[in-house]
Structures are given as structure tokens and as C-alpha cells.
Design goal:
Radius of gyration of chain A: 22 Å
Strand content of chain A: 5-15%
Order of helices and strands of chain A: HHEHHEEHH
Distance between the termini of chain A: 49 Å
Strand order of the largest sheet of chain A: 1-3-2
Largest interface: A-B, 26 and 30 residues
Structural class of chain A: alpha+beta
Oligomer: homodimer
CATH architecture of the largest domain in chain A: Orthogonal Bundle
Number of strands of chain A: 3
Number of domains of chain A: 2
CATH topology of the largest domain in chain A: Arc Repressor Mutant, subunit A
Number of helices of chain A: 6
CATH superfamily of the largest domain in chain A: Winged helix-like DNA-binding domain superfamily/Winged helix DNA-binding domain
Largest sheet of chain A: 3 strands, antiparallel
DNA sequence: TAGGAATATTCCTATTAGAGTATATTTAAG
DNA sequence: CTTAAATATACTCTAATAGGAATATTCCTA
């Protein structure tokens, strides 16, 4: 939970979120990330550092290259956190159900369709 | 998706996240929120405005009070967005994931009974 | 071992965003 | 009609932060 909250604040930055979405499709080097997002290398490195320190990413050294990829934990944490809002999410579904029932009722009174 | 990204940046602010977590347990007025979070009323109002404009909250007027509560949509969006990381989440912790799936299945059968 | 490529780091600047304070607005009560 | 309560808004200040440029570091290769 605490981890999920930290992840949220880190992912609040657009470029960092973009990095995470890039890495969803597989690991990438710093240069590749900088190129794909059209940002400069130092900025990429800085964001990657923050993402790594918050344990959203992990690095693997390959000679003078650094290969970054996603860690699963923060996303699992976020999922757990989201589950604590399940009740709210369901409330509206129920309302929608009720609404649909109302529509069906009106439909019945208007013209008996089916 | 776009909505989920916006929600992330809005929830990146600690006080706003705290407000959202407060409202998980039910609707509250501005004063109640400010008091519970030990922040000043104008700050509460500002954060609530941002949260409302990003459609995370909705307001109801009651005389000179404003009652805020969560909207389900952004959380559903976040859930959808998180699902796009399912592959990464499944890579490791297969056992835990299976367990969660079992729980989800049980949950689904509960819901569909209603 | 010199040079170049990839990345990290440092320092600076400018923008931004949140906090604080004062004030405006709305509404109920007396 | 005045006042007080609840909330929103406007203004200012300050601090955090992202970006830019230059430089340091590491590692490979000729």
C-alpha cells in the first residue's frame, strides 16, 4: 500500500509514465528510451534513476549499456490498492443495472418488444 | 487510457491521494476533509477542485455545504490500464497470481448471483 | 593506450505547484 | 437585515523539480 502510494507519485510525471509504458513491451537501454521519447539522455537517466529507486524498474548492466525493465511488484501493489475501491466501483454498476431495469420496464409498458 | 494517465498525475499529489482514500469510506464535506487531513480549508478546496475537474470526484450541494464523493469511472480506467501490464505481472509470482485468480473467480461467482 | 560510445552526475536556471492569507460568495438563522 | 458558518477564489511567496549543458565515468576496440 505504501509502495503503491509512492508508485503513484513517481508515475505522476508524464515522461516517467511514458517510460513505463514503453517498457511494457520489453526491456530497453537508456539511449533507446531517450530516442523513442525524444528526450535528452541526461533527462532519461534522471527519470530512470527515480524509477529504479522507487523499485518500479530494475537495471541490468551490459558493458557500458544499462538495460532497464519493469518490475512486477509495484503493479501488483497498485492492483491491490485498487481493489480497496471495489465497493465504489460496484456501486455504480448496480445503479446501471437499476437504470437498465427501469428502461426495460418502460419498454414493456410502451410496446412489448421481445 | 488517457483518463487513467490523467488520474495518475492528479493522484500523484499526496494530499489528493489522501482525500481519495478518505472518501473511500463515504462522502464528506470540505470542512470534514480539511479537519481529518489537518490541512487548511482553502487547500482542501483547491485539491477538491482539481479532483473534481479531472472527474475523480463529484460534488453535491447541500445548503452552503458541498459534499464530495468518489466517482467509479477513474478507478475502472486505472484497472483497465493496469491490465495492460498483466504480462509483466505474471512473469514472476505465478503462484501468487494463480491464487489471486482463484479469488477473483470466487468473487465473480458471488457477483453474478446477485 | 588512445579514443569513442553509452551512461551517470553535477550545476544552473526557470517554471510550476502547493501553502498561506485575505477576501468574496452563498446560505441559514435570528 | 445582520451575522455567522461553509466554501470558493485571488494573490503572493516559496520550494520542489524538470530541463539544459557540461563533465565525469565506464567499457570496448583499434
Amino acid at each position: 500500500m505504501n509502495h503503491a502510494m509512492n508508485a503513484l507519485s513517481v508515475l505522476g510525471e508524464p515522461n516517467r509514465l511514458a517510460i513505463v509504458e514503453l517498457l511494457r513491451d520489453g526491456e530497453l537501454t537508456v539511449g533507446e528510451i531517450a530516442h523513442k521519447l525524444e528526450i535528452r539522455q541526461p533527462q532519461a537517466s534522471k527519470h530512470l534513476k527515480i524509477l529504479t529507486e522507487s523499485e518500479i524498474l530494475e537495471v541490468k548492466a551490459d558493458a557500458n549499456r544499462r538495460i532497464y525493465k519493469l518490475r512486477p511488484e509495484p503493479f501488483q501493489s497498485l492492483e491491490s490498492w485498487l481493489k480497496t475501491f471495489q465497493k465504489i466501483m460496484e456501486e455504480r454498476y448496480d445503479k446501471l443495472d437499476d437504470y437498465l431495469k427501469v428502461l426495460q420496464q418502460k419498454d414493456k409498458t410502451k410496446k412489448s418488444k421481445k
